[in-house]
Amino acid sequence: MNWSPDYLAEVIQENLSFRIGQRNANGLSPQWECDAHYVSTSVTDFVSWCRGNNTLAFGEYPQNEWWAYAAYLHMGTTPALSSLQKDVPWNSIFPYLPNPNGSTFWLGTNQSHTGCHYDTYGVNFVLQVFGKKRWILFPPTDTPFLYPTRLPLEESTVFSRVNFKCPNFVKYPLILSAHPRVVTLQSGDILFVPRHWWHFVETVEEDISCAVNLWIDQPQLDNTVRCKEALTQLACFSLAQCAPGNSGIINRLHAAERAFARSENWFNCLVECIDAHISSVPLTRSSAPQITSGPVLDWSILSATDIVDILPDSNKLPLPSGSFEVNLEKIIAAFLHPDVIDLVYSKLGE
């Protein structure tokens, strides 16, 4: 692929939505996407801003204080990106893949990042097009150490409460028992992210980074997950509607989930989804799509590293407050915890 920042600026003629984040944020929580500022602008303006020029769209955000990230844009349904799909060589990399068109597009500055999370559906391949990205991955067995939460709520995403830009292992001591795998992807590298593996991803060095992901559904496993996702949304929307109007709980939902929660038929839709998937028969193993690569890939297995080696100096971390407050958000988050949803799902099957 011959993409470059200038090439994308020339080809992408419509505006993209860039999430804006602070470079020096050191709060206890991650910079959640639902709390972020967003700028809609052209890739031309974005590239110019990255190179130190003043632009109208980024006028309030000095480049040395803020990063920007156009993230998780579905290429097939984003008009500005659909023409670029033909450039992505998934067909030659995986010639037997049944549908290689589920790509998402990521373009960001150095220090732009995706908070630590795992995806509840399928598996994921990542092609680093240009720039460098550092991936910190954790196996599913590390879930008890990573403080999972469903608030903020994004369908198919379980977040970690830990801010990996400034992880506070006084407040979150269990992260010291985790077993991270670390790799920095460079242009042309491909990473396979197995099912339910946690990952924190950040653009590193003084580069603009571009990557393309390919999501592969696993229907024989995902039907169960779709039921659990519907249960999570049903609980969240119901509790949010009972909360006081000034509680701000509705703002803890991502945009798509917030729009769904405000629709008139969310309850019936979710109940129908639960009913459909709780009674569905899983596909046999032979029915699942087979992912077979050609002879062009040379895979390497990542080894675990000591998490202390990738955390900042503890002397630089802010100490947590000594108080313990049980607020409305914590109560709702407890009801939405994956362990609770798993128990509800198991009871439905009795």
From TrEMBL:
Function: May play a role in cellular stress response.
A Pfam family: Cupin_8
Residues covered by the JmjC domain: 77-231
Chief subcellular location: cytoplasm
Species for this entry: Echinococcus granulosus
Transmembrane segments: none
PANTHER family, sorted: HSPB1-ASSOCIATED PROTEIN 1 (PTHR12461:SF43), HYPOXIA-INDUCIBLE FACTOR 1 ALPHA INHIBITOR-RELATED (PTHR12461)
Protein name: HSPB1-associated protein
SMART domains: JmjC (SM00558)
InterPro entries cross-referenced by the UniProt entry: Cupin_8, JmjC_dom
GO cellular component: cytoplasm
Location relative to the cell: Cytoplasm
Keywords annotated in UniProt: Cytoplasm, Stress response
